[in-house]
Amino acid sequence: MLREGIEPDPRFTLANERTFLAWIRTSLGLIAAAVGFETFAGDIVAPVLRTVLASVLLLFAVVLAVVAVVRWVGVERAMRSEQPLPFPWIAYLLAALLSIAGIVLAIAIVV
Question: Which end of the chain is more exposed for a tag (fewer CB within 10 A), N or C?
Answer without folding.
Answer: N
